[in-house]
C-alpha cells in the first residue's frame, strides 16, 4: 500500500478539523476528495506534507511503509510526496531554472545520487516543458512571478514532471482555470501517470475529474470521510450537491 491513513485527528490553533480520517491509496490509483468549504480537505493535504501550522493529535500515516508523520517536510518531498497548491506562491528573484535544479539535486543527494550535470538538466527541462506546454520564456523567469493563474498551475505540473513524485496531491488545481487551461493542466498530469504513481485530487467540481478519471471518489464532511464510491458518485454530487449525503450520514 502506498499511503495508509488510520484514524487521523488534526487541527490548527487548538481547533480540531480532522476527526478520524481513514484512507488507503494503492500504487497507480487516483483518489478524488470532494466536500464543502471547511470540511477538512486542505487541512488533510497540509498535514500530509508536514505544514508546521497544523497539529496531529492522534492517528497514524504510513507512506510506502514508512512513518510519514515522523519525517520533516523536506524528507516527505524527497520520499516522493508532492503538493500542488490552490494558490501557488511567487518567489521573486529566484529563476525557475535555479529553483528546479536545486530541488532536483537535493532529492538526488537524499537518495545517494550524484548531482545532475548542467547539460542533462537542461535536456530534461526541455523534455518536461513540452509535456505541459510550458513556454520557455516562463521557465526562465522568477518562480511564478507575474504568472497568470493558469500559468502558475501549469508551472506546478511542470515541477511535478521534473521531480517525478510517487504521490501527488492536487489541492483545487482547477480553481480559477478556464476550460483551455484546465485541459492543458489535466492532460499534462495524465501524460505523467504511471502504474507506480498515485494522486489525491481535491476538488469541488466534476469537470476536472472528467479529465483525470479517478478510481475512487471520497466525500469529506465534518472532518470525516462519510462516503466513498466510483466516478458516478462525483456525477451525483454535481447534480444533487452535498445535502443528501449529509442527511444520510446523520441517519447512519
Structure description:
The protein has 252 residues and is α/β, with parallel strands linked by helices. It is built from 10 helices and 12 strands. The chain has helices at residues 41-49, 73-79, 96-110, 118-131, 136-139, 149-163, 179-192, 206-212, 231-240, 243-251; strands at 3-12, 15-25, 30-34, 54-63, 66-67, 81-84, 91-95, 142-143, 167-171, 198-202, 216-221, 224-229. The strands form 3 sheets. It has a 6-stranded mixed β-sheet with strand order 6-9-10-3-11-12, with helices on both faces. Strands 2-1-4-5 form a 4-stranded antiparallel β-sheet. Helix 2 (73-79) packs across helix 3. It is globular and about 60 Å long. The mean pLDDT is 87.
Helix content: 40-55%
Q: Shape, please?
A: globular
Number of helices: 10
Widest sheet: strand order? 6-9-10-3-11-12
Decide which structural class fits the backbone: alpha/beta
Q: What about the largest sheet?
A: 6 strands, mixed
- Any idea what the radius of gyration is? 18 Å
Summarize the structure.
By secondary structure, the chain is of the alpha/beta class. 41% of the residues lie in helices and 28% in strands.
Which terms summarize this structure?
single chain; 252 residues; alpha/beta; six-stranded mixed sheet; four-stranded antiparallel sheet; 10 helices; 41% helix
Write the layout of secondary structure elements.
Layout: E1 3-12, E2 15-25, E3 30-34, H1 41-49, E4 54-63, E5 66-67, H2 73-79, E6 81-84, E7 91-95, H3 96-110, H4 118-131, H5 136-139, E8 142-143, H6 149-163, E9 167-171, H7 179-192, E10 198-202, H8 206-212, E11 216-221, E12 224-229, H9 231-240, H10 243-251
Helix pairs in contact: 2-3, 6-7
Amino acid at each position: 500500500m502506498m499511503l495508509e491513513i488510520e484514524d487521523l485527528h488534526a487541527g490548527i490553533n487548538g481547533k480540531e478539523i480532522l476527526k478520524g480520517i481513514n484512507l488507503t491509496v494503492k500504487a497507480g490509483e487516483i483518489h478524488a476528495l470532494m466536500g464543502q468549504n471547511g470540511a477538512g480537505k486542505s487541512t488533510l493535504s497540509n498535514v500530509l506534507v508536514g505544514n508546521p501550522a497544523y497539529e496531529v493529535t492522534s492517528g497514524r500515516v504510513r507512506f510506502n511503509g514508512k512513518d510519514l508523520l515522523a519525517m520533516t517536510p523536506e524528507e516527505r518531498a524527497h520520499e516522493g510526496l508532492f503538493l500542488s497548491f490552490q494558490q501557488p506562491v511567487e518567489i521573486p528573484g529566484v529563476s525557475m531554472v535555479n529553483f528546479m535544479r536545486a530541488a532536483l539535486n537535493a532529492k538526488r543527494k537524499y537518495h545517494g545520487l550524484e548531482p545532475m550535470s548542467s547539460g542533462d538538466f537542461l535536456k530534461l527541462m526541455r523534455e518536461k516543458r513540452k509535456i505541459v506546454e510550458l513556454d520557455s520564456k516562463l521557465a526562465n523567469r522568477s518562480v511564478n512571478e507575474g504568472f497568470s493563474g493558469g500559468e502558475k498551475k501549469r508551472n506546478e505540473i511542470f515541477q511535478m514532471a521534473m521531480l517525478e513524485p510517487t504521490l501527488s496531491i492536487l489541492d483545487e488545481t482547477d480553481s480559477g482555470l478556464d476550460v483551455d487551461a484546465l485541459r492543458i493542466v489535466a492532460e499534462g498530469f495524465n501524460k505523467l501517470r504511471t502504474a507506480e504513481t498515485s494522486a489525491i485530487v481535491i476538488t469541488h467540481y466534476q469537470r476536472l475529474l472528467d479529465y483525470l478519471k479517478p478510481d475512487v471518489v471520497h466525500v469529506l464532511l465534518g472532518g470525516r470521510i462519510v462516503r466513498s464510491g466510483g466516478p458516478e458518485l462525483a456525477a451525483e454530487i454535481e447534480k444533487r450537491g452535498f445535502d443528501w449525503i449529509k442527511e444520510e450520514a446523520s441517519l447512519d
